[in-house]
Hints:
This protein has helices at residues 3-15, 25-36, 48-57, 59-62, 67-88, 93-105.
Amino acid sequence: MKTESLQPLMARLRACPTHETKLSRELFIECWDELHRDDISPLVKPTIPIMAALVLHDERFAALLNGAERAQLLGLIKLALDRYEQQTQPPNKLGKLIAGILKEQI
């Protein structure tokens, strides 16, 4: 099978709406940069994202929550990470099967 005959198939696969996601590595980096720009000064109360990061990062701030609360927060973060991974790198068994077949035929 020639590569030229695969180009229309690849174009159709890329145009598939399931290929689209609202999340991306680029958006992650952009949001992280915005978080770094949050104003932190002695007179400004920390924002929720900054406090969450400190609670997750440093045991002194983690002490602001009890064990059950920390476990709940960690569980939610892990769930969000799993969903982020699914959206940015969705498991596509059919796509992997097609790709494998195409590689064998080329």
